[in-house]
Amino acid sequence: MSSSAEVKFKPEEIARIDYSPPSEHWTDPQIDFEAKRGNWCYSGVHKSLKYLDLPVPKTKFAPNDQDWGLPENWKEIILEGLRKRLDRFRSLKVFMDICVRCGACADKCHFFIGSGDPKNMPVMRAELLRSIYRKEYTTAGKIMGKMVGARDLTIDVLKEWYYYFYQCTECRRCSVFCPYGIDTAEITMLVRELLAEVGMSIDWIVTPVANSFRTGNHLGIQPHGVKDSLEFAADDFEEITGIKIDVPINKKGAEVLFIAPSADYFAEPHYYTLLGYFALFHEIGLDYTWSTYASEGGNFGLFHSHDMIKRLNAKTYAEAKRLGVKWILGGECGHMWRVYHQYMSTMQDEPSFLEVPKSPITGTVFDHARATKMVHLAEFTADLIRHGKIKLDPSRNDHWTPTYHDSCNPARAMGLLEEPRYILQNVCNNFVEMPENTIRENTFCCGSGAGLGTDENMEMRLRGGMPRGSAVRYVQENNDANILLCMCAIDKATLPALCDFWAPGVEVGGVHEMVGNALIMTGEPERKTDLRGQPLKGKEEVENE
Amino acid sequence: MSLWFSIFLLIVLIAIPLIGASIPGFPLLLGVIIPYAAIAIFLVGFVMRIIGWAKSPVPFRIPTTSGQEKSLDWIKYAKYDNPHTFWGVVVRMALEIFFFRSLFRNTKAELRGQKIVYGSNKYLWAAGLAFHYSFLVIFIRHFKYFVEPIPGFVSLIQFFDGFFQVGLPILYLTDALIVAALGFLLLRRLLDSRLRHLSHAADWFPLLLILGIASTGILMRYFIKIDVVSAKELGTGLLSFSPVVPIGVNPLFYIHLFLVCTLIAMFPFSKLMHLGGIFLSPTRNLANNNRAVRHVNPWNYDVKVHTYEEYEDEFRDVMKAADMPLDKE
Questions:
Q1: Does the pLDDT at position A187 exceed 70?
Q2: What part of B 173-232 touches A (C-beta under 8 Å)?
Q3: Phi, then psi, of B32 in degrees rounded to 5
Q4: Which end of chain B is more exposed for a tag (fewer CB within 10 A), N or C?
């Protein structure tokens, strides 16, 4: 993935960006999909759409085809869908009406910064929908049209929506800076819902959703595959650390259900974070279980529709109830936590069968999670460290100079900022921060979130990832940073390509990978390598012997 | 083009009272009927807009968190940028409304070679704040044209506004500020190619209109004196619902009044409704306590889910072969 990107693009070419808008009026939609290859994603395959009972286009199409197989009454469907959503979402209604187009959001979007395309300014992205809203719902729009930014709904407008609303990663950075809190993520989510109603969706969303629906995880791995993978990792773990561990799967009566993004046990560098989880849970003797039915923390439904969020999210409580656990612990993932934090308790019935989460090790009651009964692993681990319940040797991470990438959703839809930093300060000696405009609530997206982490849109991913890449490069040059840590499975999947491109030499890892490296385990033989099998600092000769 | 259209519209709006003021019957229209109509449109329109927004529920609690969440006791959380309680939200909203908190964060991203650098950029915030507060002070100062005796706080504000005692009549600070701020906002929209690209009549026209109102007001106060007593008679008459149509007031006054009426009447149907909308913005007016307090969605409906039973039915054989626990053998 990363190598093909290098061949095709060069940083100096991508970074040659023209920020001056074209002279044509923006209301005329003109997307030349053929010329814009590398900037859009393939449409959803019919098999996945059908499996999910979603509207299927009349023909199979790629976005660069003329005919997108829309239903005859596509216009009705879209306008009716819009009306329905205006009645259901105050956010949408207010956001349609109150933007003053002050432009404060413009250069806050990673896609605008990296592409210079004026329709990637959050204000313009929203105008793509507002223009239709005005024409349909405002008198001024009906009479004055283009003069007040109103236009007719045409198939070209739909295609333009497809292009630009799949160039938004729902990161909410613009919303932090907007004086009225207008949230483009909300608008993008709702436009994607509208598009899906006429069969327009992208495959890197609907296929993972279909897989998650069927098998519990987005890669479509069946239960025995999940088991194999976890057990293989446990063997690997024993080889590296010399400690034999148990991996409880679908275990009824465990105290805690642990849910992580499935990439943690199927992909690199996520895998090392998994080994970190293993180390921690074993050392503290946590009575927990994995689930194969709810084997995906990452909810790809978030990128599709509110209905789909709920359809996938339902598994979490259902499985907690079936297994009879007391509370739920969630691993390192970004958008997974937007769902668990902002949507789950509203979408699902009250989980009266669960208890308010209480750390069995420290006795801390996680009162802030008393309704959902679900705690983030970083909160759990920070509490352990604070109470001195685990022994750590941060020098085992001395070969790393880590920096930390706040993932969009934990940062701007939750506020999980200090916990990971507290952990890192305790497990590493060389932690450095990227510039302040690029971290915490100001963090920049990896450029590949919200379902855009696929290959065919690599150019736009590299462009959108440029602000993050630039910040990584900064700490690489100034502080010798050599690993970018994050707590998001999409980050871990897509940042390696981004780093190879914008800051070659910087690796990508997880916070609990560092915890696993530093954690001194009872009865362990001398640790010579980290969880990646790389020699620890000062132990390199041993490796060579 | 939308700029030219807005300028043209403003000229028309100025021409109507300019020509009309000398036509018999027109002063009644301009001084009484139109102001009442404008206020009626404003009140009904404003209330309807708010009701229209409020009728749509807030299905999900989606605050944009701009600081540390409340989690563990020993971690200091951002009480106002990421409020956990009702009062935290009140402060967050107050900071937004009175100090434009979010706009204060504004930065400027610039590309240098392959690097992006960020600078502080508070001009928009400063101009926005200067404009809104000047407008408010001027609005309050105008109470003196509607009530007799003049309330104490109006005199007080007027006193401070003219504190520097420059010129005669004394220059009001806010008169200078509002023109400067509006000028900045207009020039910014005009000179920044991105903003020019995305602006349409609904952006240009209110700016020009308010600039027109401010300019005619300033002209009347400092340069072309009008019959203030008659003007005030009209104001107090309007407010007490016993309007008197003044005779022989300078047309400039009618232009000022007509532009104000235009602003009032268009307010509920324009982007100026951000005044009301900001209070209803779900990313700002909700506490980030989702995991602690359940938020209820009034239209929450059931969706098709994939149950564990269906899952086990499909995968029972492979699960059994892999020696995994089953609910049904």
A1: yes
A2: 192-203
A3: -125, -60
A4: C
Between CA B287 and CA A191 the distance in angstroms is 26
* Structural domain range at position B234: 2-302
Residue-wise pLDDT tens digits, A135-182: 999 988 999 999 999 999 999 999 999 999 999 999 999 999 999 999
Considering only CB atoms, which chain A residues are within 8 Å of B72? 364, 366, 379, 382-383, 386, 419
> In terms of CA atoms, which chain B residue is nearest residue A93?
B53
CATH number of B145's domain = 1.20.950.20
CB contact, 8 Å: A414 with chain B? Answer: yes
**In contact, A405 and A443? CB cutoff 8 Å:** yes
- Chain segment A397-406, per-residue pLDDT in tens: 999 999 999 9
Nearest to A175 among B64, B280, B319 (CB): B64
Is a pLDDT exceeding 50 seen at residue A545?
no
**Residue written as tokens 């969020």?**
A309
Using alpha carbons only, give the angle A434, A452, A27 rounded to the nearest 5 degrees. Answer: 100
Q: Is A149 on the interface with B (CB under 8 A)?
A: yes
**Three-state secondary structure along A317-376?**
HHHHHHHCCCEEEECCCCHHHHHHHHHHHHHCCCCCCCCCCECCCCCCECHHHCCCCEEE
pLDDT over 90 (residue B313): yes
Return the pLDDT at B148.
87
Among candidates A99, A252, A350 on the partner chain, residue whose Cβ is nearest the Cβ of B294:
A350
Q: Which two tokens stand for residue A533?
A: 């099998």
Nearest-Cα distance to chain B for A341, in Å, is 6
CA-nearest of A470, A501, A367 to A114 is A470
Segment holding A282, helix H or strand E: helix A270-284
Q: Using CB atoms, which residue from B52, B105, B196 is nearest to A176?
A: B105
For residues A24 and A105, the model is more confident at A105
Q: Chain A partners of B300 at a C-beta cutoff of 8 Å?
A: 346-347
Report yes or no: A90 at the B interface, CB cutoff 8 Å.
yes
pLDDT-derived band at B101, boundaries 50, 70, 90? very high
The mean pLDDT value for A290-318 works out to: 97
Look up residue A62 and give its two tokens. Answer: 């790629």
> What totals of helices (H) and strands (E) does chain A contain, helices first?
25, 7
ipTM above 0.85, yes or no: yes
Lowest average pLDDT, out of B38-42, B86-90, B112-116, goes to B112-116
pLDDT digits (tens, 9 = 90+) for A484-536: 999 999 999 999 999 999 999 999 999 999 999 999 999 999 999 999 999 99
B326 assigned to some structural domain: no
Helix extents (H) in B172-278: 173-191, 193-198, 201-218, 228-239, 251-266, 274-277
* Cβ separation B277–A98 shorter than 8 A: yes
Q: What angle do CA B78, B81, B86 make, to 5 degrees?
A: 90
Q: How far apart are CA A157 and CA A165, in angstroms?
A: 12
Task: List, in order, residues 6 or more apart from A261 with CB less than 8 Å away.
Answer: A270, A296, A297, A298, A331, A332, A333, A336, A489
Is the preceding omega at residue A467 within 30 degrees of 0, hence cis? no
Q: Where are the beta strands (DSSP E) in chain B?
A: 107-112, 115-120
- Give Cβ neighbours of residue A425 (< 8 Å, ≥ 6 apart): A431
Domain total of chain B: 1
Q: Which helix (H) or strand (E) holds A305?
A: none
Distance CA A343, CA A467 (A): 29
Q: How far apart are CA A511 and CA A306, in angstroms?
A: 30
With respect to residue B256, please indicate whether it lies within any of the assigned structural domains. yes
CA dist A306 → A1, A338, B54, B281, B289 (Å): 31, 12, 21, 19, 20
Across A37-51, A280-294, B158-172, least confident range: B158-172
